Amino acid sequence: MTNRTWSRLSTRERQGIVLGGVAQFALAGWAWCDLARRPAALVNGPKRVWAAVIAVNFVGPVAYWRWGRTATAGARRFSR
């Protein structure tokens, strides 16, 4: 793989990188806000560990949404 500078990337490549970064930060921010507001009893494991996991690219926030939260009464009501 060849190292290329930002100025040598095409417009489409730049847009893709920026869009990916925005999506990553949006997912992480959404997960961190949910984690901060969610009581510790409704989180699978320590909140500090999940806060660190969320910082890992796209994998962290997705893992938090999938395995980090416990089901609440409201979530069970909508899953029918």
UniProtKB/TrEMBL annotation:
Annotated InterPro entries: CLS_N
Membrane topology: Multi-pass membrane protein
Keywords tagged on the record: Cell membrane, Membrane, Transmembrane, Transmembrane helix
Transmembrane segments: 49-67
Coiled coil residues, start to end: none
Domain Cardiolipin synthase N-terminal: 27-69
Primary location recorded for the protein, binned into one broad class: membrane
Subcellular location field: Cell membrane
Domain of life assignment: Bacteria
Any Pfam family: PLDc_N
Protein name: PLDc N-terminal domain-containing protein
Source organism of the structure: Actinokineospora guangxiensis
